[in-house]
Design brief:
Blueprint lengths: L1 H6 L5 H32 L5 H50 L2 H6 L2 H43 L1 H8 L1 H39 L1 H6 L3 H53 L5 H42 L20 E8 L11 H5 L3 E8 L4 E5 L6 H7 L12 E4 L2 E2 L5 H6 L1 E5 L9 H6 L7 H10 L3 H5 L18 H15 L3 E5 L7 H15 L3 E5 L11 E6 L2 E6 L1 H7 L2 H11 L1
Parallel strand pairs: 3-8, 3-9, 6-7, 7-8
Antiparallel strand pairs: 1-2, 1-4, 4-5, 9-10
Length: about 575
C-alpha cells in the first residue's frame, strides 16, 4: 500500500525535494541559536567582545529572515503539492466510480461514497504533505540535537535519552487503540453524510408529508453514532497525549535536576548548563512533533485504506476478445436465462427477497423492428430483463444467454452494446445545467440543428421557445424547474438524438397525468418507428398495439401473445387489463 501511496508523489518530485530541503534548512537554522548562545556565554560576554556580540545577533536575525521566506515556501508549495495530489486521487476515484457496475451502487449509499471523495481524501493529503516533512526533518533534528548535546555532556545526554524508549512503548500501546477508534469515527461520519444526502435529495417529499421530525430522528441516529465513536477516538487520543506529554515533561525535570548536580560537581560550567537548558528543546520539540503526527498518521492511513478499497474493486470491463456490435438489426433473444441479485451486506437470508426481480429459465425471442410489451406485477422480473440487455448486471455463463443479432452480449464491448440501446425510464434523471446540455447528453458532439430536431420530435421544442433563454435555460438540480412531463420529453429528445437500434421503455409514462401521457405517447410512438422496442407498462391500455405481450410473473413468462389472443385466453393478462380499465 505504501508503494501506491508514494506513486502520487512522482509528478511532483522536484517541488517535493525543494519542499523537504526547505524544511531541513528551517530546522538546521534553529540549531544556530543555542550554538551562538553558548559562544556568547563562554567567550564574547566574558571577554567583552562587543563587535562579535552584535555580529552574532545580526547573523541570527538574518537567519530568521531566511526562515520566514522558507516557511512561506513550505506552507505554500507544500500545500499545493498536497492539493495536486488530492486532485489526482479524486480524479482516479471518480474514474473508478464511473467504471463500477450497477451492483456497486445497489449496495453503497451516495452520501457514503461522497464521504470517501471528500473527507477521506482530505485526511490522506494532509498526511501526504506533512508526513514526509515531519519524519525527515524531525529525525534529522533529533540526531543533530543528540550529537550537539553530547559535545557538552555525554552522561547528561544519555540520562535524558533514556526516557525515549519509555515514550516509544507508550506510543505503541496507545496507537492500536487510536487506529480502531478513528476507523469507527470515519465510518460514522460516512453514515451522517449518507443520511444528509438522502434527506436533502428528498426534501420536497419531506415537506409534502410534513415529516421533518422523522428526518431529524433518522439524522440524529447517525449523529449519535458519530458522537459515541468520537468519544472513543478522543478518549484514546487524550490518553495518548496525556501520557506522552507527561514523559516529555520529565525531560525538563531531568535536565533541571541532573544538570544542576553536574554543575554543582563541576562536570559542566554555567555556559554549558544554560545552553543545555536551551538546547534540550531542540531534542524534545521534534519528539513532540512526531507524537502529534501519530494522530494525523492514523487519519491518513484510515482514509487511504478506504480509498484503496474502492480503487481495488473490480470495474466493468469487456470480455477478452470482445467484438464491436455493428450494423445492428435488433433481433434479441433470451435463452434459458436464470438470474438473481446478490444480497446486500447484512441483509437477511429471506426467500421473498431472493425471489424479487429474479428470473427463472426465461426464454423469449424478439424480432427486428418488433414491439414487445412486458407486463405483470411489481417485482416479477420485467425491469431485470431490461437491465440485462445492456449488460448492466453480468449474467453468469451457466445461466443461459442473451443475444443481439445472434451475438452473445457477454462477448460484445460494453460501449458498442450500450451505444445501440436507448432507455427511457419512469424516474427521469436530468443533470444540473441547461436544456441544451441535457438533450446533447444523448450525443455529445451533436450540432445545434440535431438538438432542435430531436426536441421537435419529442414535442418539447415549442415549449423551449417560450422560455426567455430558450435552450440555454438552466433547469436546476435534477430538472427541479420542469414539470414531470417536460422532464420526460427532454429524456425522450435525448434518446432521439442518440438514435439507437434498440429501445427500452421502462414505465415511461406511468407517473404522468392522462393529458401529458397522450402527448408523450405520440413522441414515444414516433421514437419506436423502425426500432426493436421493449415496453414495460402497468397501464395496459398503452400497449394494446404491441406486436406481442409477455406476461412476467415470479421470474417466468407465463403468457405470450397479442392483446386479442391474451384476452381470449382469459388468463392473468385479462385480469390485469380489466382491473386497469376499471381504474
Amino acid at each position: 500500500m505504501l508503494k501506491r501511496f508514494f506513486s502520487y508523489y512522482k509528478p511532483h518530485k522536484f517541488m517535493f525535494t525543494c519542499d523537504m530541503a526547505a524544511s531541513l534548512l528551517i530546522s538546521l537554522t534553529g540549531m544556530i541559536y543555542p550554538i551562538i548562545t553558548r559562544k556568547m556565554l563562554r567567550e564574547y560576554i566574558p571577554d567583552r567582545q562587543y563587535k562579535l556580540i552584535v555580529i552574532s545577533g545580526l547573523v541570527v536575525f538574518g537567519l530568521y529572515v531566511l526562515r520566514m521566506f522558507l516557511r512561506y515556501f513550505v506552507n505554500y508549495y507544500g500545500h499545493m503539492i498536497g492539493a495536486k495530489m488530492q486532485a489526482q486521487m479524486r480524479l482516479d476515484l471518480f474514474n473508478r466510480l464511473e467504471e463500477l457496475p450497477f451492483s456497486f451502487y445497489d449496495e453503497h449509499e451516495t452520501g457514503r461514497i461522497m464521504s470517501r471523495m471528500t473527507n477521506d481524501l482530505f485526511e490522506v493529503v494532509e498526511l501526504a504533505h506533512h508526513g514526509p516533512e515531519n519524519i525527515i526533518t524531525c529525525t534529522v533534528m533529533i540526531v543533530l540535537a543528540f550529537t550537539y548535546l553530547c559535545t557538552m555532556s555525554v552522561p547528561l545526554t544519555l540520562i535524558i535519552f533514556a526516557c525515549v524508549p519509555l515514550l516509544m512503548i507508550v506510543t505503541s500501546i496507545c496507537r492500536k487503540e487510536q487506529r480502531r477508534a478513528f476507523d469507527a469515527r470515519r465510518k460514522s461520519l460516512a453514515v451522517i453524510n449518507g443520511a444528509l444526502e438522502s434527506s436533502l435529495t428528498g426534501i420536497r417529499v419531506t415537506k409534502a408529508f410534513n415529516n421533518r421530525e422523522k428526518e431529524v430522528e433518522k439524522f440524529e441516529i447517525g449523529n449519535h453514532e458519530f458522537v459515541e465513536s468520537s468519544r472513543m477516538a478522543y478518549s484514546a487520543l487524550g490518553k495518548f497525549h496525556a501520557s506522552s506529554n507527561f514523559i516529555t515533561d520529565i525531560f525538563n525535570v531531568i535536565v533541571l535536576i541532573a544538570g544542576g548536580l553536574f554543575l554543582y560537581n563541576g562536570k559542566i560550567d554555567f555556559a554549558d548548563y544554560s545552553t543545555f537548558i536551551v538546547s534540550v528543546n531542540l531534542f524534545i520539540g521534534p519528539i513532540n512533533t512526531l507524537i502529534g503526527f501519530v494522530e494525523q498518521y492514523q487519519n491518513g492511513v484510515s482514509g487511504f485504506k478506504r480509498f484503496v478499497e474502492i480503487m481495488d474493486m473490480e470495474p466493468e470491463k469487456d470480455k477478452e476478445g470482445a467484438k464491436v456490435l455493428e450494423n445492428v438489426k435488433g433481433d434479441i433473444e433470451f435463452k434459458n436465462v436464470t438470474f438473481s441479485y446478490k444480497k446486500r451486506d447484512g441483509e437477511d437470508d429471506n426467500e421473498e427477497t431472493d425471489k424479487k426481480g429474479a428470473l427463472n429459465n426465461v426464454s423469449l425471442k424478439i424480432n427486428c423492428g418488433e414491439k414487445v410489451a412486458l407486463v405483470g406485477e411489481s417485482g416479477g422480473g420485467k425491469t431485470t430483463m431490461c437491465h440485462l440487455i445492456p449488460n448492466f448486471y453480468k449474467l453468469p455463463e451457466a445461466n443461459g444467454s442473451i443475444t443481439i443479432d445472434g451475438q452473445d452480449i457477454r462477448g460484445l464491448t460494453l460501449a458498442s452494446l450500450r451505444d445501440n440501446i436507448g432507455i427511457v425510464q419512469q424516474d427521469v434523471f436530468l443533470f444540473s445545467g441547461t436544456i441544451r446540455d441535457n438533450i446533447r447528453y444523448g450525443k455529445i458532439d451533436a450540432t445545434e440543428e440535431e438538438i432542435i430536431e430531436a426536441a421537435k420530435k419529442a414535442n418539447i421544442h415549442d415549449y423551449v421557445m417560450t422560455l426567455e433563454h430558450g435552450y440555454d435555460t438552466e433547469i436546476g438540480e435534477r430538472g427541479v424547474k420542469l414539470s414531470g412531463g417536460q422532464k420526460q420529453r427532454l429524456s425522450i429528445a435525448r434518446v432521439f438524438l442518440k438514435n439507437p437500434a434498440i429501445l427500452i421503455l421502462d414505465e415511461a409514462t406511468s407517473a404522468l397525468d392522462n393529458a401529458t401521457e397522450i402527448l408523450i405517447q405520440k413522441a414515444l410512438d414516433e421514437l419506436c418507428v423502425g426500432r426493436t422496442t421493449i415496453v414495460v407498462a402497468h397501464r395496459l391500455s398503452t400497449i394494446r398495439n404491441a406486436n406481442r405481450i409477455a406476461v412476467v410473473s415470479k421470474g417466468e413468462i407465463i403468457e405470450l401473445g397479442t392483446h386479442e389472443e391474451l384476452m381470449e385466453k382469459g388468463g392473468l393478462y385479462k385480469e390485469l387489463y380489466q382491473a386497469s380499465v376499471r381504474v
